[in-house]
TrEMBL record, chain A:
Listed name of the protein: Gaa1-like protein
Organism: Amylocarpus encephaloides
Sequence intervals crossing the membrane: 20-41, 360-383, 429-449, 461-481, 501-530, 542-563, 583-605
Keyword Mitochondrion: no
SUPFAM superfamilies: Zn-dependent exopeptidases
Record keyword tRNA-binding present: no
Entry's Gene Ontology BP terms: attachment of GPI anchor to protein
Signal peptide: none
UniProtKB/TrEMBL annotation, chain B:
Membrane topology (UniProt): Multi-pass membrane protein
Any GO BP: GPI anchor biosynthetic process
Pathway field: Glycolipid biosynthesis; glycosylphosphatidylinositol-anchor biosynthesis
InterPro entries, A to Z: PIG-U
Organism for this UniProt entry: Amylocarpus encephaloides
Claim: Heme is one of the keywords in the record: no
Transmembrane segments: 129-146, 177-202, 214-233, 280-298, 344-366, 378-402
Domain of life: Eukaryota
Localization terms from the record: Endoplasmic reticulum membrane
Family per record: Belongs to the PIGU family.
Keyword annotations of the record: Endoplasmic reticulum, GPI-anchor biosynthesis, Membrane, Transmembrane, Transmembrane helix
GO cellular component, one term: GPI-anchor transamidase complex
Entry-linked Pfam families: PIG-U
Name by which UniProt lists this protein: GPI transamidase-like protein component PIG-U
């Protein structure tokens, strides 16, 4: 073993071996992408199953029917009356309803400021104390007054009111049930959950009444009056965190198994169980996870380790609101059975259909491979930067290969050659390290800029930044050449450090938010092959164009164009995410991806100092 | 004059960076104080506050079972205005301690002991970094900065150890032993540094003591350390008006009752342990830790400063409650051996491993504690990787120094590849 290790530096000099890493790192990217594309196949994904036996989904008879429909209609009419009313008036009325059902009611005002705008409102909630419990655990049923699209959640709120009244009649609850009606779907739930865990910011009221530890939350988003066909389940949390797969499985099992209602994910209204549909579902899921935004009111719960999902009925069918109510009743009965927090099943998964998933062990390698490609190149460049690059050494190293054992014996030939080959050239790594670390710190600038600019100025600030962004690396590069005149080795080291950091950040990120790490890794992949080509203007230009297309600003512009959103809107949403949800995607973009890109551009614009007359060094492919 | 200006510039910049971090991010100190990588049960600033509160209310600080630090810190911190109301005084104290450590480190670097000690002069000794670079590498090391912001009391130990060494290379054995006694008094484990330190003092002793034999020199210093420690402990018992602090401070280090996670290897092992084996393995772990002292001191008799460097590294891995503060001490000493760096073979690998672990550690801790989607094994796996990276670095540095020594006797082997036969 140690013999093998000690010959490591002999391997280092092997010219054939030094050819491998660039291809190897390309292979890593290719395999990483291919791996992801294989996942939807039957052999690589699995059918979902319930891990937590206590849940017993669909094992109980549901009684939510009959006269409760009349109650629902009554509440529905009352809610319709409130459409034009102000938040306070609505809450007065809702409070009255909850009190009439015999529940303890409380309210909470909140106010957030983000991108120069104020988001305020008032949440109202009621607690049903468990007849068989001791108020140590609670489940939340949430209906936001308006949903994510801003539509009035008419049937949803009416259903929450009906269920509150209905649940109160049962004596079998062993966990408290909290009925929460938030003023909106974005800020309200966050304010409530933050306050529930006493981590709320200024401007948000504390909760006057609380219950025990939250075990789960279910959100109803039912903004229309007509009957529906099936249920759309939204499950992505903030920063790509996901609820326990058991919760989702329970709802799917109850809806499709017990009630005969289909369940769909990621806005795939039609799912033919084909490879293409599975892949699309998975990619949409990854996109939502990667963006790390809140996809529904449930998202705010997930960072607090409260498993939560949103249920949205959709389509035209024959299922009525009572069926929806029964799904929720049965889900709550299952959650009521829980003996401990949901922990059995997966927290890291990609879903390709409501009953098919891949777990972390299967999909993680693809993001890791993409991240490792950077690390391989970094190690390779480090080794290369230490190797002397004279022709002398080439001859000598072939000599040496004839027999490694003979080294010791050629004692009298010691004088000149060996020292040159085996002793690595000194690496001047202070400047490269300063450049790379400096560019990472510089990332704080756009991060601060985009999170603190008022909404009206966001688009103009963005465009100015986008233009500056494309010129700025060249300025830095010129300044670098003027003042330090970096050598070829220093450029290699700049790249090595930059790629090392990038690989490191991305592989750490892959454990937290797989999709974001994968997306950023893919977009940054060309950086592996970027270097200065002083005598090849065409290659340089092509690379500059390619990199300009893959800079964070261009990608942002392109994606907002693709989704038909204004840049200002996207940035406003991002700032809102930063201020309210505690979203971290921006940090990754500006402090991990952008600095790596800047360093890549600096290299393209760089001119290594001429130390030796031979220009062939620059042509070495890496 | 020019020299002083450079020193002032480095110290000023280091202080400015720390002040900036303290003031620009007011949440940062408390955030870092709560990190297990920085604060251990025996060094945590939060626990110090608890002890201080009890002390100021005339309750024994050890009654709460939370405070496990030396009693002398209590009157020291009571002199400062409360850190809750006037945090800037605490900040300034910690910045000052860092700068004092850096100053001691510069003196060690300036002495040239690393390159040529009394019995051994490295053929490569001219290839070294200036003391400014070494001080800067210490002061701008992210681990040192994070430690300073997190305010654990281990910085005092670091400072005392560096002063002990710097006094030793200057030949002031008495002062050196005093500094060592303070370090040992604060954290106990530095007492293991005594053998190499006393040899360093002996090698560097002034012309007045030239004739003194090793034995009388060592016994004199042993007496000095025992005397200092005795008076420090006596003083402590007066401060807390009982001797129960011994059990709560050194007892905790020895017996490991608090199994809060940290970057070391002990906590997980002792969580998993059956109680009947606990005492046995406590003994094994402590013997393992102290066994390095004898071996390294004998083998590297000619370079006691390097033994000290190695031992700080070994402690950073194997001591009961290590933190990144111990690593920053090791990484501060290592650049003194710049001249053997070309002989090291796995620097890049070791440093990348350490960097990877630095990032993955907090990520996995987050998954375990906050997100709930991971478990303790995640974090422990990363502490293993962290320790692996550090041990590669230590072993590699040791290899380089031994090879450097070996090549003095076998000059024809310079630049040749080694192989195991």
């Amino acid at each position: 073993m140690s013999g093998l290790l000690s010959s490591g530096s002999l391997l280092r000099r092997n010219p054939r071996l030094l050819q491998v890493p660039p291809y190897l790192s390309f292979l890593c990217i290719a395999i990483g992408v291919a791996w992801l594309l294989l996942l939807p196949l039957d052999n690589y994904s699995r059918r979902t199953y319930i891990s937590e036996n206590a849940l017993l989904p669909g094992q109980v008879h549901t009684y939510f029917a009959g006269s409760d429909q009349n109650v629902f209609r009554g509440y529905k009419r009352e809610v319709d009356e409130l459409v034009e009313k102000s938040n306070a008036e609505v809450n007065d009325k809702l409070e009255e309803f909850f009190k009439a059902s015999g529940l303890k009611v409380a309210r909470q005002k909140y106010e957030y400021r983000s991108a120069g705008e104020t988001y305020s409102g008032e949440n109202v909630y009621a607690i049903l104390h468990a007849p068989r419990g001791d108020a140590e655990e609670a489940i939340v049923l949430l209906g936001a007054w308006t949903n994510v699209e801003g539509e009035l959640n008419k049937s949803g709120v009416a259903l929450v009111l009906t269920l509150a009244r209905y649940f109160k009649r049962w004596s079998l609850w062993s966990k408290d049930i909290i009925f929460l009606i938030t003023a909106d779907s974005r800020a309200g739930p966050q304010a409530w959950v933050d306050a529930y865990h006493d981590t709320h910011q200024k401007g948000i009221q504390s909760l006057p009444v609380k219950s025990g530890a939250l075990q789960g939350a279910v959100v109803i988003d039912y903004p229309f009056d007509h009957r529906f066909e099936s249920i759309h389940i939204v499950y992505d949390g903030i920063n790509g965190q996901l609820p326990n797969l058991d919760l989702l499985n329970t709802v799917v099992a109850i809806a499709s198994g017990q009630m005969g209602i289909g369940a769909s994910l990621q806005k795939m209204w039609q799912h033919k169980d084909s490879y293409k549909d599975r892949l699309t579902t998975m990619l949409r899921g990854m996109m939502n996870q990667g963006l790390g935004h809140a996809s529904g009111p449930h998202s705010s719960f997930i960072p607090y380790h409260v498993d939560a999902i949103t249920l949205q009925p959709f389509g035209e069918g024959w299922e009525d609101e009572m069926a929806m109510g029964r799904v929720i009743e049965s889900t709550f009965r299952s959650l009521n059975n829980l003996l401990e927090h949901l922990h059995q099943s997966f927290f890291f998964y990609l879903l390709m259909q409501s009953n098919r998933f891949v777990s972390i062990g299967t999909y993680l390698p693809s993001a890791m491979l993409v991240a490792i490609n950077f690390t391989i190149m970094a190690i390779f460049l480090w080794v290369k930067s230490g190797a002397p690059s004279t022709t002398n050494s080439k001859v000598a190293s072939t000599d040496k290969k004839s027999g490694p054992l003979s080294i010791i014996q050629e004692g009298d030939a010691k004088a000149l050659i060996p020292k040159q080959i085996l002793e690595e050239t000194e690496r001047e790594f202070f400047l490269p390290l300063a450049v790379v670390v400096g560019s990472h710190f510089l990332g704080v600038l756009p991060l601060y800029l985009f999170n603190h600019t008022p909404e009206i100025m966001l688009p103009s600030v963005f465009f100015i930044f986008a233009i500056v962004n494309n010129i700025f690396p060249f300025l830095i590069s010129t300044a670098l050449i003027r003042s330090f005149n970096p050598s070829h080795q220093q450029y290699q080291l700049i790249k090595a450090f930059s790629l090392l950091f990038l690989g490191m950040f991305l592989s750490s990120l892959a454990t937290l938010n797989f999709s974001l790490a994968f997306l950023v890794g893919l977009l940054a992949a060309p950086l592996t092959y970027v270097q200065s080509f002083p005598n090849r203007p065409i290659t340089t230009t092509l690379f500059v164009i390619l990199l300009s297309l893959l800079t964070p600003t261009t990608v942002l512009l392109a994606s907002s164009f693709y989704w038909n959103l204004g840049v200002g809107e996207v940035l406003k949403e991002a700032a809102f995410g930063w201020d309210v949800w505690g979203m971290n995607t921006q940090v990754v973009v500006w402090c991990v991806w952008w600095p790596a890109w800047v360093v890549g551009m600096i290299q393209l614009a760089g001119k290594p100092r001429n130390e030796k007359p031979k220009p062939e060094k620059a042509a070495v492919k890496s | 004059m020019n020299i002083d200006r450079r020193k002032a510039a480095i110290f000023g910049a280091a202080a400015a960076v720390r002040l900036l971090l303290f003031t620009a991010f007011p949440g940062l100190p408390d955030l870092l104080t709560a990190r297990v990588e920085i604060s251990t049960p025996v060094t945590s600033f939060k626990r110090l506050q608890e002890g201080l509160f009890l002390y100021n209310h005339n309750v024994s600080p050890y009654d709460g079972g939370v405070y496990h630090q030396a009693p002398i810190l209590l009157p020291l911190f009571s002199l400062l205005p409360s850190s809750a109301t006037y945090p800037s005084f605490t900040y300034l104290l910690y910045i000052l301690v860092d700068i004092l450590s850096a100053n001691a480190l510069m003196k060690i670097a300036d002495s040239g002991e690393a390159g040529s000690s009394k019995h051994y002069t490295s053929p490569r000794k001219d290839k070294k970094w200036t003391s400014y670079a070494i001080a800067a590498a210490f002061l701008f090391n992210p681990f040192t900065i994070a430690t300073c912001i997190g305010r654990p009391t281990s910085v005092f130990t670091t400072c005392a150890i560096l002063h002990a060494i710097s006094k030793a290379v200057m030949g002031a054995s008495f002062t050196s032993m005093f500094a060592l006694s303070i370090a040992a008094y604060l954290s106990m484990y530095p007492v293991l540094l005594f053998p190499p330190l006393v040899l360093l003092c002996y090698d560097r002793r002034g012309p007045k003591k030239e004739s003194e034999s090793v034995y009388s020199f060592v016994s004199g210093n042993v007496t000095a350390v025992v005397g200092f420690l005795y008076s420090l402990l006596q003083m402590s018992s007066i401060i807390t008006s009982s001797w129960e602090f011994i059990e709560s401070t050194y007892g905790v280090q020895l017996l490991l009752p608090d199994l809060t996670p940290n970057v070391g290897l002990w906590w997980y092992f002792f969580i998993e342990m059956f109680d009947s084996f606990r005492n046995f393995f406590l003994g094994v772990f402590w013997i393992h830790l102290s066994s390095y002292v004898g071996g390294l001191t004998l083998r590297l008799r000619t370079q006691p400063l390097f033994v000290l460097t190695m031992l700080t590294g070994v402690f950073a891995i194997f001591k009961p409650y290590p933190s990144i503060s111990d690593t920053s001490l090791f990484l501060a000493m290592l650049p003194l051996y710049r001249h053997v760096f070309p002989l090291m073979r796995y620097t890049f690998l070791a440093l990348s491993t350490i960097l990877y672990a630095t990032l993955l550690g907090p990520a996995f801790y987050y998954l375990w504690i906050y997100a709930g989607s991971g478990n303790a094994n995640f974090f422990y796996a990363i502490t293993l990787v962290w320790s692996l990276g550090l041990s590669i670095l230590i072993a590699d540095a040791l290899f380089a120094v031994l090879r450097d020594e070996w090549e003095v006797g076998r000059p024809e082997m310079r630049g040749k590849e080694i192989r195991q036969i």
